[in-house]
Amino acid sequence: MTGARGEAAAGRFLCADAARARVDPLAGTAPYGSVWILVEYRGGWPSNGFDGLDLHPEVKARVFSAAQRLRARILLVRRHGRTPAGRPRRWAVLRYASGGDQRQHWGTWERDEELSGIVDALEAPGEPGGPPVVLVCAHGTHDTCCALRGRPVGRALSERWPDAVWECSHVGGDRFAANVVVLPDGVYYGNLDAEASVRVVGEHLADRVHADHLRGYTDLFPPQQAALAAVLRHAGPAGRHAYDVVTTLRDDGGWWVRVAARPTGAPSYDVRVRSHRTAPHRLTCRGESASSAVVYEAVTLRTAGTGPDGLP
Fold first, then answer.
1. Could you tell me the residue ranges of all domains in the chain?
2. Which of 17, 58, 140, 194 is least surrounded by CB atoms within 10 angstroms?
């Protein structure tokens, strides 16, 4: 027996298997962010990703400092399989802004010093549009499940969209492997296998986001992500920009989130979201201590303005 099932049969703890057995909710688990830095690195990835690379210290410090100022996330990337010799390594700065404005800036590097171009790119607006970038977390030195579940997904997606797909380092939520992130859209999907990933990414690229496998949009906060996922589950798949979160009110019981449709005239929804902490569990393959996670749950969904305590 091979693969994830073989590992599990051998008695090894696998966080993604455990999370699926517990039916850990996906909605509301995408980390917040709107700027990403991709650095192609074809050698072995350290467990801590970019921080652990043996690069010129001054260059690495400059890139890291510039990324911190914008709260940008730095991810190592590589193509699935072998890359032809002589092809220059690439880097990218990808941005998402409210309203759907997307920007990309790509460059190449051979010497460490050439990564300083990332710093300049972070200070420039970048080019509008550009083809989507599909990332598959396959960071096995960070978490076993990311490799066991991520590599087959990376292979399947690369066979279908070879120019769009990259394997990447840790994106968060190891227990939801295989994780896929579509940029600059900033959309996280989880609990994917090879077959499901081709279907989910194909639908996304056709501008149909489904609630199944959706972890969230990275320009929204967790209760907003959970509310939007509930709307998609109720109303059916929709485009990445088919809805806006227009109001979020916090009270002692949780949040009321209004999700408004584009264009106006289509149904909008008020969603009640509550949160709670789970019992402690092992949440990653590498971490042996138990931790609790915060779960965001949509408990009420109604057409906007139809309830006495609805949003104004």
1. 3-215, 221-303
2. 58
Report the pLDDT value the prediction gives residue 282, as an integer from 0 to 100: 94
Q: How far is CA 178 from CA 130, 175, 229, in A?
A: 25, 8, 19
267-300 exposure pattern, b = at least 16 Cβ within 10 A, e = fewer: ebbbbbbeeeeeeeebbbbeeeeeeebebbbbee
67 prior amide bond cis, ω within 30: no
d(CA 73, CA 151): 22
3-state DSSP helix/strand/coil % of the chain, to nearest 5: 30, 30, 40
Give me the pLDDT at residue 262, please.
85
Query: Residue 264 gets which letter from DSSP?
Result: B
Task: Tell me what the mean pLDDT of segment 34-48 comes to.
Answer: 95
CATH superfamily of 3-215: Glutaredoxin (3.40.30.10)
Of the chain, the percentage scoring pLDDT greater than 70 comes to 94
Closest Cα to residue 269, out of 304, 299, 243, 238?
304
Position 45, amino acid:
W
